[in-house]
């Protein structure tokens, strides 16, 4: 496997295209030591970046919530994403915009740190193997829980929030699973390590209220697709014991797209059913189309 610091491509770094291997930061960068960094994950299909404006808006929102202002406008960031795709001759790929505080201060306080932005892109296959997607991935229960939004900036895609995701996924893979399913601090079903979760129960689509984790862009897209087909979709509190009532389960995310779940833990098994298949087909058609359906407004507690 090739290391991500060793590539012949180009990376957009603070407004300039630089050779991939030269896109470096100092070891005393504040973002490395204190997690003052935010990022996005985006996909391009046939040279078109899916939901680019929404991703850039979230990047700016995340940075603002963490207390720093990006030195580039949304329009400049959007244009830079396409510059990176074209410079690396990528049609179907993954893009990683990231913003972080620099190395002018070393300590919790970071008011004088400069703000940096970079965008890299690379060719990207399916997040899970085709075989896993065909029969449904296997999720292990995580021992780590999503914290209360009173303790973290839950509505941001901040680097520090993914520490427990990495720990959870490593544990799951070590035990032969594909990913992990996390509860929140109250014991409610939350999300997988990098994807939102949906349940089909008696033909109705259910998904946890996104009150302590990201209301994913793919999550909202899939909700929109389901409702367009007349599939009743409910955002609500879901307790872990309710998973045994589900006929189908799937996860959604920019990387995962729409991926069926075949097993949770050692005793819950699911089929890749008709609603999951329909939404996979619809999502695939959407990402390869010339137009995008508008996202529904985020839903609170309902």
The radius of gyration computed from the alpha-carbon positions, rounded to a whole number of angstroms, is 19 Å
Strand content: 25-35%
Helix proportion? 25-40%
Number of domains: 2
What is the strand tally? 16
- Mean pLDDT, to the nearest integer, reads 93
Overall 3D form: globular
The profile of the biggest β sheet is: 9 strands, mixed
Give the N-terminus to C-terminus distance in angstroms: 45 Å
CATH-assigned homologous superfamily of the largest domain: D-amino Acid Aminotransferase, subunit A, domain 2
Please write the CATH class name of the largest domain: Alpha Beta
CATH topology of the largest domain: D-amino Acid Aminotransferase, Chain A, domain 2
Helical element count? 7
In CATH, the architecture of the largest domain is Alpha-Beta Barrel
| SSE class | alpha+beta
What low-confidence regions span 5 or more consecutive residues with pLDDT below 50? Answer: 293-302
Write a concise keyword list for the protein shown above.
302 residues, alpha+beta, D-amino Acid Aminotransferase, Chain A, domain 1, D-amino Acid Aminotransferase, Chain A, domain 2, 9-stranded mixed sheet, 7-stranded antiparallel sheet, 25% helix, 28% strand, disordered C terminus
Please characterize this protein's 3D structure:
The structure is a single chain. The protein is of the alpha+beta class. It has 2 domains: 10-123, Aminotransferase class 4, branched-chain amino acid transferase, N-terminal domain (D-amino Acid Aminotransferase, Chain A, domain 1), CATH 3.30.470.10; 130-287, D-amino Acid Aminotransferase, subunit A, domain 2 (D-amino Acid Aminotransferase, Chain A, domain 2), CATH 3.20.10.10. It is built from 7 helices and 16 strands. Strands 8, 9, 10, 11, 12, 13, 14, 15 and 16 form a 9-stranded mixed β-sheet that branches. Strands 1, 2, 3, 4, 5, 6 and 7 form a 7-stranded antiparallel β-sheet that branches. β11 (196-201) and β12 form a beta hairpin.
